[in-house]
Amino acid sequence: MKNNCTPEATSALFKKHFGHTPTHVVAAPGRLEVLGNHTDYNHGLVMSVAVDRYIFIASSPRPDGRVELISSAFPAPEKFSVSDLKSNPAARWADYVKGVLAQLRRRGVLFGGFNAAIHSTLPLGAGLSSSAALEVATALAIRRLHPFTLTETGTAQPPQANPRGELPPVTPVERMHYARLCRAAENEFVGVPCGILDQVSSLCGRAWNVTSLDCQALTVDYAPLPGVVLVVCPSGVNHALIGGEYKELRDHCESAARKLGAKFLRTVELKQLQAARTALTDREFACAHHVVTEIARVVAAERALRADDLAQFGQYLFQSHESSRDFLKNSTAELDQLVELARQHPACLGARLTGGGFGGATLNLVVHHEAEVFMTHMATGYEKQTGRKLQPDLCQIVDGAR
Ligand code: ADP
Ligand code: MG
């Protein structure tokens, strides 16, 4: 998954296209959902990490109010005026950038034209959330070009650069405003009804730690995850139109909550759900059962981490997979095979599907010094069982975008 992509390579890409050196380069990491499957839009709890795969944006201001974007992932540049932000069906990828610009403008951020080059080690659509990283990197690139401070609803006095021209870091509180802004860009401009997990993870991650996000209070907390690495195993199979299946699960959760008299499943207790079993359809009950128990698992898993009990933490990952598989039913035969293979290896503390499901990848929590043997075990076993090649990918937990 890694390629020759660094801030320097992004500057070089910029220079090759625009003919001069960029004034700034920013980076925003991708993320992995560690625990809390489909809990975010139910206003629940979810654990994630920012990982060492990034979107880089190199940029320079220009005086004519025009924007020119290039991306190493797409063949043609996209050009538009800052005063005319509309989607171009031939360059949908630029919607993520335009959406952020539109949201910044709505909050009163003043910015002019710019040139930008986008380069990335984050595979598109592979469950590491390249879209959120692109949104976050865009917002940070504009902050470098035209410094601003975000508040809950608008902007405040812009930050002052030091004599070396460096801006102070974005504060933790302001990061949450960035996350909201970037999610709004994806919801409104791109038209994807995503929750806020991806943007928060890219902005608020902390190296060596798991980030716990309370999707109701919009607060984050951290717990250390020492001595282990995360291995991602892409199943290589996508079974369903993810958008449609995702919406169906969302609908079941929302109608279950309504029938239980709750605004969101977050506030529903397991006992209450069981007592109302007959008022719900089978699918509503099963989906709600997953969400309610999954939220409880996140609470318990946090406790296990704080008690330094990684073995127990890993067990919650296995349990999460079983709940997704049996109740939410968003697993696939391949994801189940990957989890069972992982379970057989002593270096694996926990494994589960990660992200939307219906294909995609599993996440494996693996003892640090045994990562290589584990990855070989997975690749050999998966190929033997399915005839498919597997390229497990080792991820480090990193700080959020700076
Ligand atoms: P994910 O966020 O899981 O990677 P999404 O479908 O939400 O998948 O977002 C992927 C989209 O984000 C791409 O189709 C593209 O439009 C945009 N994108 C991601 N990476 C880049 C990139 N390097 N350059 C341009 N656009 C990108
Ligand atoms: Mg995305």
- Count of helical regions: 11
CATH architecture name of the largest domain: 2-Layer Sandwich
Would you give the CATH topology of the largest domain?
A: Ribosomal Protein S5, domain 2
H and E string: HEEEEHEHEEHHEEEHHHHHEEHEE
Query: How many domains make up the coordinates?
Result: 2
Bound ions, cofactors and other small molecules, one mention each: adenosine-5'-diphosphate, magnesium ion
Distance between the termini: 22 Å
Number of strands: 14
Report mean pLDDT, rounded to a whole number.
95
**Main structural class:** alpha+beta
The percent range for strand residues is 15-25%
Which CATH class of the largest domain is shown?
A: Alpha Beta
Rg calc: 21 Å
Main β-sheet description: 8 strands, mixed
